[in-house]
Design brief:
The protein is of the alpha+beta class. It folds into four domains: 16-133, PAS domain (Beta-Lactamase); 153-256, PAS domain (Beta-Lactamase, 2-Layer Sandwich); 259-336; 339-511, Histidine kinase-like ATPase, C-terminal domain (Heat Shock Protein 90). The chain is 45% helix and 26% strand. It contains 15 helices and 17 strands. The protein has helices spanning 3-24, 43-49, 68-84, 130-152, 171-177, 182-185, 190-193, 196-212, 258-304, 308-335, 347-361, 383-399, 418-423, 470-480, 505-511, and strands spanning 28-33, 38-41, 88-96, 102-113, 119-128, 156-161, 166-169, 216-224, 230-241, 247-256, 343-345, 366-372, 379-381, 405-416, 430-438, 484-490, 494-502. The strands form four sheets. The chain has a five-stranded antiparallel beta sheet, sandwiched between helices. Strands 7-6-10-9-8 form a five-stranded antiparallel beta sheet, with helices on both faces. The protein has a five-stranded mixed beta sheet with strand order 12-14-15-17-16. Strand 6 (156-161) and strand 7 form a beta hairpin. The radius of gyration is 43 Å and the shape is rod-shaped.
Length: 512
């Protein structure tokens, strides 16, 4: 065999090797001439174009296999490549088959040049990524579904990394954190988001989950937010593990149970009040029976004793007995839950009457201010009882300001929505008249707020005329009018008592 024949044999061998390689690669391989006609194609390319052999591809263009629109696009792109001489790599292409099937490929094309460097066509290689893209799209749909679910659940849902830093938080959790967007919370720890004492408790729970792998299930947590509001959460935290089982973080879910806790506390208070009311009624009746003879005896003795000393003593006895009788009257009013004749009450006139009496009763160093809105809705109620309830609140406010200062009585219309009704036991959605009594006094210590409406509960020293019936009587009257009382207070900064009384519906609708 001469050298020429040997070179031809080697060239044939290389061609056979190259052809075998091209035909058996899973990737699509092809070459086109200057008119974008196929001059080379492998088996994968033929199958991609919908034919069973390479021979049916050669000499044809994309217009013979794909839609006119797609073929026109391919032709324009390829002509631009051959004119510029610049390769196109990793281009994602979509092909719509006649059967309706959609195929996707990741394609690279480079110019084909002759020995002189002139571009005479192109060479392309494409990898079918249809399954990968379908898997990615399915995964993306699942992620979107999961995120939609997480973002729309009312529970707080979040995730933290191994260092207890937030990496995900849903809108309910962001609201609880006081953050406007997820970016404000991501990367932060509880020490960045809560007061130090609260954060320390949360961090300790996180470490049990992250270090020991112990799940926290349905634990009640008291969360004091940055603005000072207290919320109760029913929290569960579970370890987040990677494919090897290593703990890489935690996932938490917290259900806001503040409303439930408030309702439970109100039920307990109501039960305690009911028991105290029954006890108070029995004591009051006994005292009434005891005081009646005392007052009668004072009158009889006054007719027999004429000297000044005796009369002075009788006057003191009578005054003490009448003060006791007034206390008994308040107790009985409390126990009857403010029953009485109801009529239409003008809130503005009610406020004026309370201010006139309170001005006379309170010390001169207390300045009463009013803020009464116009077009107030009328109230259906007992004017004397409502007057007594507000006067009791003003008296209580005055006693909280031993150094004097401003006392505000404000009245306005208020429309309660379903959220407000759900937050406060005894309230319903609808129209109310809101009467607020605000002082600038010593405030109420947090540990005492649960007890201030209890009958006979008082923080005053023994011997004072206050017997702890003012607030309990006010609450009883307001509840008897189907209203509620809310209290806002901060130690050293005063208190605000909010009385919500249902507006007379027909009149309110007419004015509203």
């Amino acid at each position: 065999m001469d050298i020429h024949q040997k070179e031809i044999a080697e060239l044939g061998s290389e061609h056979s090797l190259l052809r075998t390689l091209i035909d058996n690669l899973p990737d699509i391989i092809f070459a086109k001439d200057a008119q974008s006609r196929f001059i080379l194609a492998n088996t994968a390319c033929a199958h991609q174009l919908g034919v069973d052999c390479v021979e049916k591809v050669l000499g044809k263009t994309d217009a013979d296999f794909v839609s006119p629109e797609l073929a026109s696009q391919y032709l324009a792109d390829e002509q631009a490549l051959m004119q510029s001489g610049q390769p196109v790599t990793q281009e994602e292409l979509t092909q719509n088959k006649e059967t309706g099937e959609i195929r996707r490929s990741l394609t690279s094309k480079v110019p084909l040049k002759d020995a002189t460097g002139k571009v005479i066509g192109l060479i392309g290689i494409a990898r079918d990524i249809t399954r990968r893209k379908q898997a990615e799209e399915a995964l993306d749909r699942e992620r979107q579904l999961l995120r939609t679910l997480i973002d729309n659940l009312p529970d707080c849902i979040y995730a933290k990394d191994a260092d207890a830093r937030k990496i995900m938080a849903n809108p309910a959790d962001l609201k609880n954190l006081g953050c406007k967007s997820e970016s404000e919370a991501v990367g932060k720890t509880d020490f960045d988001l809560f007061p130090k004492e609260v954060a320390a408790t949360f961090f300790a729970d996180d470490q049990c989950v992250l270090k020991d792998g112990k799940a926290v299930i349905n634990r009640e947590e008291k969360a004091v937010l940055q603005d000072g509001e207290t919320r109760w959460l029913l929290t569960s935290k579970i370890p987040w593990r990677d494919a090897s089982g290593k703990i890489i973080g935690l996932v938490g879910i917290g259900r806001d149970i503040t409303e439930r806790k408030n309702l439970e506390a109100e039920v307990l208070r109501a039960q305690r009040m009911e028991s105290l009311g029954r006890l108070a009624t029995g004591i009051a009746h006994d005292l009434n029976n005891t005081l009646a003879p005392v007052l009668i005896s004072v009158e009889l003795l006054r007719q027999k004793l004429q000297d000044d000393d005796s009369l002075h003593v009788l006057a003191a006895i009578e005054a003490a007995a009448r003060r006791a009788a007034d206390t008994v009257k308040q107790v009985l009013s409390f126990s009857r839950e403010a029953e009485g004749r109801r009529t239409t009450v003008n809130p503005s006139r009610l406020a004026d009457g309370v201010v006139r009496i309170a001005t006379q009763m309170l010390p001169k160093n207390i300045r009463i201010e009013t803020r009464v809105a116009e077009d107030l809705w009328p109230i259906l109620g007992n004017p004397l009882q409502l007057h007594q309830a507000l006067l009791n609140l003003c008296t209580n406010a005055g006693e909280a300001m031993p150094e004097g200062g401003p006392l505000m009585l404000a009245v306005r219309n208020f429309t309660a929505d379903s959220h407000f009704a759900g937050m406060h036991s005894g309230a319903g959605a609808g129209r109310y008249v809101l009467l607020e009594v605000s002082d600038t006094g010593v405030g109420i210590a947090p540990e005492l707020r649960e007890r201030i409406f209890e009958p006979f509960f008082t923080t005053k020293e023994l011997g004072r005329t206050n017997v702890g019936m003012g607030l309990s009587t006010a609450l009883s009257i307001v509840k008897g009018h189907h209203g509620i009382i809310l209290v806002k207070s901060e130690t050293g900064k005063g208190s605000t008592f909010q009385v919500y009384l249902p507006a007379q519906e027909a009149a309110a609708e007419k004015r509203g």
